[in-house]
# Entry
Amino acid sequence: MNIPNTILKLKDKMETSHSLPWREDFGGYLLQRGYLLYQNLFVKRHWGFAAQLTFNTFMSLIPAFAIIFAIGKGLGFESYILSWCKYVFSAQPQVYNAIVSLSDSYIQYVHTRVFVIAGIAVMLWSVISLFMDIESVFNDIWGVKEDRPLQKRLVYYVAIIFGAPIVIIVCSCFTIYSYILVDYLPAIRYITPVMHWATGIIVPILLTWLFFLCVFTCIPHTPVPVRHAWWPSLLASFCIMLLQMVYIHLQVLVSSYSIIYGSLAAIPLFLLWLQISWYIIIGCAELTHANQDLAIGNVDKTTAYTMNEIIAQCLIILDLLIDRQRKGYSPLRFTQLQQRTHFSRPELLHCLARMEAGGVVFASPSRHRHDKLYTLSQNTQDIQPDVVVARLMNSRLGDDGRQVTDAKIREKIKTFRIHVDR
# Structure
């Protein structure tokens, strides 16, 4: 076994800009995602988001549950909200009791104040600021530079705040009735215990999976297909369930912790549980992002292309645009160029930036969000290959010192000239 060659093959797989098929190369499929996960979490330091969100979640926890309890009480389903809350914090009964009592106190405090509207506004803003922080973190993970308009964000967040209790009530009813349905089934040896166990495991995992699927596809301000998020969401639900089980068993081992901290022992343990939960969520969000980037070739490559290769790539793009314009078709969008050239997103962006800087192509807004239309800056009959290459060579984008054209690029210019002269 040649170890250096094996290492080079693994490195090539990790840095491949397109997704390897999991049926043919499952090891390479996992290796690609593991490499991107390492790059984003440790090199780009996205792990730091977990501490930020842990603090913000802890500070917004009581106002959030106060709103949920208030809406549930107003709808007459307070018992369902309490049962759901008790299930969520089943591993932390002290935290559950503290949240319920503090939320009631918070509601009473808001109601007894002279400025009731101001108190409600502060309570809503505490929760909305948490949502804004979460959206900002997810946009950073996906590399989205533009946030949603503030007005749209406020509308979405208020809808989530008032819709969350209804969703919780529906999920609680579904869980309760699934248990009742299993209890009505006839007792069969071996089968009935397995069905009870499956109901207690599958139903929570299913609901948690749907929750994370909505989180990973709806929060980022960019389209995220469900096909890229379904298995990271499932992995996140399994990890959260496993964390709950481990936490319950670890409470026996850390019973001496309460001797040191007394009644405050629940706070550091709860913060630890909260931060590990955010580690899981951020890690699975990075996996969703990696799936999406590998599917569209949007992976940064470390290859330093020579000037010959860059000019050749630009001429390939120019061939497509000339052919498109001669046939009288509409201009090509960025995504269409990527599909036709099979370049990675960074490669295509670099080439188009060079072509724009050289005045060869012109970019215009498209009706598709996060996409642009690219057209030629002049008529096809006015294009001169030597002038085009000279413009591309002179429009330097941080590539000083690269080699000038040689026989390979001159051969590409000949084929390009044939295309232009037709």
